[in-house]
Write a structure and sequence with these properties.
The structure holds 2 protein chains of 2 kinds.
Chain A (H helix, E strand, L loop, with lengths): L2 E7 L5 H9 L3 E5 L6 E7 L2 E8 L11 H13 L3 E7 L3 H12 L5 E6 L1 H7 L2 E2 L1 H8 L2 E4 L8 H14 L11 H14 L8 H9 L3 H6 L4 H18 L3 H20 E2 L9 H9 L5 H47 L4 H19 L2 H17 L1 H14 L8 H7 L3 H6 L7 H11 L8 H11 L4 H23 L12 E3 L8 H35 E4 L2 E4 L7 H9 L11 H12 L3 H9 L13 H7 L2 H13 L4 H11 L2 H29 L6 H18 L15
Parallel strand pairs in A: 1-4, 1-5, 5-6, 6-8
Antiparallel strand pairs in A: 2-3, 3-4, 7-9, 11-12
Helix pairs in contact in A: 3-11, 5-11, 7-8, 7-10, 13-14, 13-15, 14-22, 15-22, 19-21, 19-29, 20-21, 20-26, 20-27, 21-30, 22-28, 23-24, 24-25, 27-29, 28-29, 29-30
Chain B lengths: L11 E7 L3 H9 L7 E7 L6 E5 L2 E5 L1 H4 L2 E3 L1
């Protein structure tokens, strides 16, 4: 029978580092059912019969946020054999608040006092024996980063798990509260398992709706509980939830007095505070932020990234793989179609996308470092005011920031957003910001139509940001997303040096996610696209085509093109290019190249600028660019959306919203632009004006009241 | 009624009572802001909001509109 040990603790307590240390590579990462919250479980290294279940970082076990509900539901229903409570020793009071709650569940608990190395440095002294005696469970030191204490910790956890002896929760409550709880326990004893009696009594006292729904109480029992609760509230002149919280913290304060000797250094500024006096300084914060981001992008994209990408594309694929492969196959008299399929379709298609992987890994690495160090929390702190204007929070900024490199890790970064509602909005709008794969499209059109003006690129970032803001406001006013704004009460954790393990793991997780997409979806679509491009119907027969104007892809393009006519680019080449852009935005330029007769083009399509200029006007080209920038992102990003939304219907909604939005904006741009440049007022113009009016209405209407809504953190 | 919103960076105040209700009030309390707790207002964010507070030995970020729920002595 496997032993299950749950890991619970505050965010930033080092729980994840411990989990990684305990499970190594033997871990599985998924999502908790129905929500967009990561679920991690794994086997103990060297002892596969011990299952380690990581739980979301929580500050408490209230019913108000999905992370807390998941944690308490797991513990109360799945009944793990033991809980390792990771406690940040430099932040003892707030961490112990959760500890008292975990101990009331009737499951054996072992407290892992983490960051002991930092505690020692600060001069504080924690008497672990006193703490342990008072709490009623083992308290063991841990320095997860350094790897000290992990083994003993797990051994102790397994020991208490197998001993199967319940633990007495500490005597947190006093006086009339304890009295009331005892009476409530009596009242509900027949409806609740004995181990859960205390937990349930406290929750019922707090009028926790979720627990109330779970327990089958007779109407008499229910009213008795309410009676008891009210009496206590009246006596203490406070509401029951507040009473419980206050008593917990009062108990902890007493505990701290007995078991902790604070260093005599007083309230001097810690190293983190000193760093923050510069980093979140009133005036310096924003310039520093811009400088840091510029540096990150400089390293990731312009120097190291470009170097490695060019090498991958030009040398690795361009010289080492593609030509020898082609020669080998042709030499072995492999049928030409198979050569084409493998070399051009598969290797060429997948290779084009994989060529960007090194650049992305460098970007992910830099961003993981910033995150691990603790800087990203500061970014959310700085940006919150701006985002609050349109109903989100500073935490939504980070996915968009990352999305300017690649939407895939950007969308994945939305995990830090607590409010499910805000998270979904952020996931939907992240890909509006131009990612690095869209830059070649911008460069192509800027070069062909706008004399390589830098304003083209700048305008697309403005459009992206505007799209995010507008969408945020519109969605927040709709029924699905309306509700009280989610609380923005966020800890600013101490800075610490990045851990190589943590950073590399985070980098790899993001990179691997992308590569896997390349291996599957992109592979299949590359094959399909190659086939559609290489084959067509000539003289009624399906055959390989030389002139790709006759290909199946062209036929499909021509069939679909009229959809894009109101947007100004209703020609089949544009339609085809847009479609190949779904596989990877980098494909758009390549596709144009191929369709205009160039098997290979430079990244910005230099060779075809004049050809493009012949087929488009400035306006139609801009409209095309806008559509491609805003419409649904590449398959890799769609995959990320699916994974983070954890729901096909939400993914469908996201894609539908993006497509409709892109179409509308593009249409408005083209039609109104046409009128401004002299075209006559027509049906298209009328439609554009109607769409614009609709958009403005959705944007500026007063917030509708939808009556009783779930709290912002609900599902 | 003096609230946390009225304090200036550098002030140290003591919490008297928490107003409001529901998720936001619970979250503020869960994070350690309870009657009798000492709070140090370290700074305002560069754009003026949110506040950075030192509570029970750690740094907490709180919006001004939510700080208005915390009555101080």
């Amino acid at each position: 029978m496997p032993t299950t040990i749950a890991l619970a603790g505050n965010p930033n307590s080092g729980k994840t580092t411990l989990f990684n240390a305990l499970t190594g590579s033997a871990q599985y990462v998924g999502n908790w059912p129905g929500v967009t919250i990561e679920k991690k479980e794994g086997r103990l290294k060297g002892k596969p019969d011990v299952l380690i279940q990581d739980l979301p970082g929580v500050y408490s076990l209230s019913p108000y946020s999905p992370e807390e509900v998941i944690t308490r539901d797991y513990l109360a229903r799945e009944n793990p054999d033991a809980i390792i409570n990771v406690v940040d020793g430099t932040n003892l009071e707030r961490n112990l608040y959760l500890t008292t709650q975990l101990m009331e569940l009737g499951i054996p608990v072992v407290v892992a006092l983490n960051m002991m190395d930092l505690v020692k440095k600060s001069g504080d002294r924690i008497d672990m024996k006193r703490l342990s005696d008072a709490l009623g469970c083992e308290v063991m030191p841990l320095s997860a980063l350094k790897g000290d204490g992990g083994e003993q910790l797990v051994r102790e956890a397994v020991r208490v798990a197998q001993a199967k002896k319940g633990m007495e929760p500490p005597a947190v409550f006093a006086g009339s509260v304890e009295h009331t709880l005892a009476h409530i326990e009596e009242t509900i004893a027949s409806a609740v398992a004995p181990e859960r009696l205390r937990y349930s009594a406290i929750k019922l006292f707090e009028r926790d709706e979720k627990v109330m729904a779970d327990i089958a109480l007779s109407p008499e029992a229910k009213s008795r509980v309410e009676e008891l609760t009210k009496a206590c509230e009246q006596e203490l002149d406070d509401d029951s939830e507040s009473i419980i919280v206050n008593q917990r913290y009062a108990y902890i304060a007493g505990l701290m007095d007995r078991a902790v000797v604070k260093s005599r250094k007083g309230r001097k500024m810690s190293l983190s505070d000193r760093i923050d006096s510069v980093v979140t300084h009133r005036v310096l914060a924003l310039p520093i932020f811009v400088a840091i981001m510029a540096l990150v992008y400089y390293i990731a994209v312009t120097t190291v990234g470009a170097l490695v990408t060019d090498f991958t594309n030009d040398v690795f694929f361009g010289e080492w793989i593609i030509p020898p492969l082609r020669e080998a196959m042709e030499g072995a008299s492999v049928a030409p179609w198979l050569v084409g399929l493998v070399v051009d379709g598969i290797v060429g298609g997948v290779g084009a996308v994989l060529g960007f992987v090194p650049q992305m890994l460098v970007l992910f690495l830099m961003l993981s470092i910033l995150e691990d160090v603790g800087y990203m929390a500061r970014v959310a702190f700085i940006m919150d005011r701006m985002f609050r204007r349109f109903g989100l929070s500073g935490k939504s900024f980070i996915p968009m920031l990352i999305g300017s490199g690649c939407s895939v890790p950007g969308i994945m970064a939305s995990r830090t957003i607590e409010s499910e509602r805000d998270r979904r909005i952020t996931i939907i709008t992240t890909s509006f910001i131009p990612c690095s794969a869209k830059l070649p499209i911008i460069a192509l059109l800027a070069g062909a139509m706008f004399n390589q003006s830098n304003w083209v690129a700048v305008s697309t970032y403005f459009i992206g940001v505007a799209a995010v803001i507008i969408s945020g406001i519109i969605l927040k006013k709709s029924r699905r997303f309306a509700g009280d704004p989610a609380p923005f009460v966020m800890e600013l954790p101490s800075y610490h040096l990045p851990t190589a393990g943590g950073v590399l793991r985070a980098t790899w997780e993001r990179g691997w996610s992308f590569i896997k997409r390349a291996g599957t979806v992109i592979l299949v679509s590359s094959i399909v696209l190659w086939f559609l491009q290489a084959y067509g119907v000539e003289a009624g027969v399906l055959t390989a085509v030389e002139d790709n104007n006759n290909s199946l892809l062209a036929a499909i393009g021509r069939f679909v093109a009229p959809i894009f006519a109101p947007l100004g680019f209703g020609n089949w080449k544009a339609a085809v290019a847009t479609f190949t852009g779904l596989v990877a935005k980098e494909n758009v330029v390549n596709t144009f190249g191929v369709l205009y007769g160039f098997a290979e083009v430079a990244e910005d399509g230099l060779e075809i600028w004049s050809l493009i200029a012949a087929d488009y006007t400035a306006l139609t080209a801009y409209s095309f660019m806008v559509f491609n920038l805003l419409c649904i992102p590449c398959f890799a990003a769609i995959g990320a959306i699916r994974r983070e939304m954890n729901s096909s219907s939400w993914t469908g909604f996201a894609l539908m919203y993006q497509t409709v939005f892109a179409y509308a904006v593009s249409l408005i741009t083209y039609q109104l632009g046409a009128v401004f440049t002299g075209s006559p007022f027509g049906l298209g113009t009328a439609v554009a004006l109607a769409l614009l009016a609709g958009l403005l209405y959705l944007l500026f209407r007063p917030q509708p009241s939808y009556g009783q809504l779930k709290p912002a953190t609900g599902r | 009624m003096k609230t946390l919103r009225d304090t200036k960076p550098g002030d140290t105040v003591t919490v008297h009572k928490l107003h409001g209700e529901g998720a936001i009030k619970r979250r503020i309390m869960d994070m350690g802001i309870t009657p009798g707790t000492e709070i140090y207002l370290r700074k305002l964010a560069p754009l003026g909001d949110p506040l950075e507070l030192t509570v029970r030995g750690y740094e907490l970020s709180l919006r001004k509109q939510d700080a208005a729920m915390i009555e101080i002595r």
